[in-house]
Amino acid sequence: MRQRLPAVQKSPRLCRMPLSPPFLNVLIVSLAYLNTGAYGYMLGLLLLAINATLAAVPIPYVPYVYTAQIGGCVNFSAYIDPLSPWGISSVYVVLNNGAVVAPQLNRYPTPKYVSGTACGDFISVKVDKWRSLGPLIPVSVKGQDSALLYQGFPLEVNGTAILVVKSLLPPRVVGDFVYRVNSTAFQGVYVEEYIAYGHVEVSGYGIVNVTYISLTGDRPDYYIYVPSRGVRVEGVKPWTPDIPLLFASNQSAVVGKPRLVVEPISIPVVGECAGTATVSNPLQRPLLVYVKLQSGEEYVLQYYYLPDNVTTWLYRGAEAWSIDGVELPVSYVEAEGGYPVGKCLVEGLRYYVYIDVNGTTYKYPAAVRQGTLEAHTDLVKPKVAVEAPITAAVEPPIAKAGDNVTVRLFINGTVVAELKTKAAPVIKVNSTLFKEVRVVDLLGSPIHAFVVYVGTLKFYGTNGVAKVVAVDNAVVVEVNGAKYLAPLAPEIRLPTLARESFLKILAAAIIVGVSAAFVVGVKKRESGEKVIKGGDVVEV
User: Fold this and answer.
1) What is the pTM of this model?
2) 512 pLDDT tier (thresholds 50, 70, 90)
């Protein structure tokens, strides 16, 4: 069985490449294939160009904030597909000390396209809900209005507008889609210019000039045309408006009576399985790509950008891995919509694997890896860290990380403890399960080798120390074949003598004997007796 490392959370910065305008029809389209099961479900792509580098960032949920390190001053632009329901609600710069500053934005930013200059350590782009805009965006200038600002009474603006605020206090402009374009302060007067969408509140003390702009007027002053593959516009001529809103980097402004011509697009099918792929409506979001393979399989893929091609592989099997890198048995695989996997795998189609564990079936998304479906799960096969001679078993042996499991500890096949804990790759058992006891003789000398019986458990001790599990209050200590019953306590004193104690007694006896002999000899010398040593008679 091959062992794999746990799945690593990858950075959303999927690709980086040199930026050469215009990039919408080339780079945006070429990045569409990234909407695959390899990265889970995706709502769309945020394209962030920093200096000469482009990052394609998947949008996994909304609102979503993406932060990139810049470490200085950079030129940037951020783009979201005009046909998607998402928009860029804010762009700000974060310094290493935590301070947040606004970048210098070019005139005029929109929820779909923002460009400017940022100086700091990190740049953050927030994506939020917006409304879908077509490739032909009607723009009407509804005139201007002025209002006085008083402290504590904000001005409410609804719709799309350009705001010029002159205030004796630092103005405050808040809303879902608000961009500060210019900011100056001279002789105590703050002059700031904003472009705002939706509901906006303006606070300050001074005057605010509002230029209202409608993006859905019946009789627009001009149109913004965003080129798209499979779509062309007729009946218009180029024009340069007074307020050049930018909804894409390569857009053009036109006047006239436009007529959109939408044509189906054929997309090449490449890889190990031949077939055809067609987009019937390139303006639809999400895009529906109809794929028909020569093997007879037919699929409908969803994209948020037009892909350059559809890649295929011959199906080579499925693999699933636990958090700790243990391979799990896959019982069934299917394609999105509940269809069984056929002869081929198609990039852009979501796949799922099913895993049967403990009578429960779990479903996980799988990524396509050169013809193999690979899924990283939140299942785990816990290992228990215990000290010998204890062994452990976990029930159930495989569980979801964080679920309740039971850990049973065994010694010689006997359960000594049962613990309830959470499933994790490694479960550590508290060392307080063991109790250390000292076994000594009558004189306090440690017993060198002995056996302690606690219930049906058997523990070996050396040098007067043994670690036992307290499953009973009474123990039996065996020394040299003799058994002694004693209560379980930190120190157990046995009615026996260790070798050290015996040698101590022997040494003491010898010392006492020598001392007694010396005393007797002295008395004999004092009385004039003869002392016979080694057969010799010594006259004293």
Assistant:
1) 0.62
2) low
